[in-house]
Amino acid sequence: MSIEPTFENVSYGPFERNVLDFWKAESRGPAPVVVFIHGGGFRGGDKTKIRQTPDVIRRCLASGVSFAAINYRFRGQAPLPEILRDTARAIQFLRYKAAEWNIDKGRIAAYGGSAGAGSSLWIGFHDDLADPTSEDPVLRESSRLTVVGANATQATYDFSRWPEVLGFGFELQDRDYDETAQLYGLKSREEIDSPKGRAIRRDLDMLGHMDPRDPPVYLSSGMPNTRPEHRGHIVHHPRHAIAIKKKCDELGIEAAIVLRETPPGERVAMLDFFFKHLQVKVRT
Fold first, then answer.
1. Does the predicted TM-score (pTM) go above 0.90?
2. CA–CA dist 103, 67 (Å, integer)
3. How large is the average pLDDT for residues 49-61?
């Protein structure tokens, strides 16, 4: 049985899909928040998907952790840089509502699968998007996260780096370049290597943004670490997660990874990892 949110379809921005649901935990002091970002290839999906697995919400609330689930614009409605800034704005909005919703601004986690995973990593690794001079009070708030979770993620949205990440002699095809230009909001594939295109690629490169100040990361993938068999295997290949884990290790960022071949006794649960870094005392 799903748990009804405390506040539903709250607008966090100016667009129709800039809405979120919020479950307010009972807490003596300001509570941490776990934020769910849905997947769907930036083409579909909805925040209500989390209600199909309500145990995550239940466990958070039982431990004094509030929960949020967000929507964001889809491709066709906005280019990828703006879509990702929708997701970051949702984090900023939660901080803006901190006093009203009893939120601890210093303890916010975000996670998701597929597009939601990549979005979470992008927010977590990107420089803070706070603009102290903005006329919009939401945009004055920090976009930084305390801890990040990514299931079946992509390592970067600079797609030119995917052959490097995946190996196997993998190469981008003509349709990949055409789709990339459209996703970036460019007029043609030739613009991908223009100064404008290179700037967009740098902005969307989670691997390129990483530095030692970034938050701890939980990574998981159920795909086999073999030559990609189909497009979904390419997009969700475990080597994306492995590349992030390798960079974390190089930078001294704590990271846990659970792959298909990880023995059961070595598997870390995402919420356990989150609660550790959110400094949550689990209630029994």
1. yes
2. 10
3. 95
